[in-house]
Write a structure and sequence with these properties.
The protein has 309 residues and is mostly helical. It is 69% helix and 1% strand. 43% of the residues are buried.
């Protein structure tokens, strides 16, 4: 893609001062590039957030694309050295972006436009990279609290990134709720991908204290054993995720009116993954559990009725 003419943005305490939208024929191409990433990589996210007004939806696509870039920098590297190199390179690019010297790439160009239009928290982007570094230096979490700390960095940080877009007036007051949504979604990811994470990248995100307490071993997990112990561990995390979804949804009326419906939809659709695992008898070893299109349509009707009252 050709170089875009991007104006520099001044930062004061991490907040973006300049708010005028970049006018360039190339910015639409940059957003289209980001949209293709979210459309391909997360149908549940796209299903919900594509219902935002166009300018807000585009901003969400850009943020998702950045997070996908960060995630892939770790997951697609073949060696620890390559992981470290990729993460260092991305951190350097974020440093350059903060200084107004972003690389010539559609994701960075789209993000520049987002930072120009919204009061974006640059620290949340660095926190996202810290979360990726935690995967690079991965150790199985000992407790649910450690799982949630990790989940903040890789997903709660995303909630904070989205907050100025979906709560333009109240984003400073809604940080806890935004983090809650991100952590709930990450817990959902963990519970959906138990088998895949162990099989493909040899990671166990289930807390070791619960596994030890309930006598569920790594060999059990490797063998895909679904017994009462596994279900109890799984449900401990699922119930925590569902409580966080509930906490988030209690504050929906404080979000922008044009964002409440898509945001509520995203939490319900993503939370539906937990129900899908239950319906598949907790088989998150051999099945790729997701909220079916039929379930999405049902959730869409229910949420729409909620906002039509």
């Amino acid at each position: 893609m050709k170089t875009l003419s991007i104006s520099l943005v001044l930062f004061r305490g991490g907040a973006c001062i300049e708010k005028e939208r970049i006018h360039s024929s190339g910015i639409d191409q940059a957003y289209a590039y980001c949209e293709e990433i979210i459309k391909e990589q997360s149908k549940s996210f796209y299903f919900a957030f594509s219902k935002l007004p166009k300018d807000k939806a585009e901003a969400v696509y850009a943020i998702y694309a950045f997070c996908r870039l960060a995630d892939d920098s770790i997951d697609e590297a073949e060696t620890k050295e390559q992981q470290a190199e990729a993460l260092a390179m991305l951190t350097n690019e974020l440093n350059r972006f903060e200084q107004g010297r972003e690389p010539d790439h559609p994701i960075w160009h789209a993000l520049r436009d987002v930072f120009n239009r919204y009061d974006m928290p640059i620290q949340s982007f660095y926190d996202q990279l810290k979360g990726q570094a935690m995967d690079y230096h991965f150790e199985q979490p000992s407790t649910l609290e450690e799982v949630e700390t990790y989940s903040y960095y890789v997903a709660g940080s995303v909630g904070l990134m989205l907050l100025p877009i979906i709560a333009t007036e109240n984003h400073q007051e809604l940080k806890e709720q935004a983090i809650a949504l991100g952590v709930a979604m990450q817990l959902t990811n963990i519970l959906r991908d138990v088998g895949e994470d162990y099989r493909e990248i040899h990671r166990i995100y289930l807390p070791s204290d619960l596994m030890k307490k309930l006598n569920y071993t790594e060999q059990n997990l490797s063998d895909g054993v679904i017994n009462e112990s596994f279900i109890s561990i799984w449900e401990s995390l699922a119930l925590r995720a569902e409580q966080l979804y509930l906490d988030f949804n209690r504050s929906l009326d404080l979000f922008d009116k044009d964002s409440q419906y898509p945001v509520a939809l995203s939490s319900k659709v993503y939370g539906g993954i937990l129900d899908a695992v239950r319906q598949n008898n907790y088989d998150c070893f051999t099945k790729r559990n997701k909220t079916s299109m039929l379930a999405k349509m049902r959730i869409l009707r229910e949420v729409k009725m909620q906002f039509d009252k």
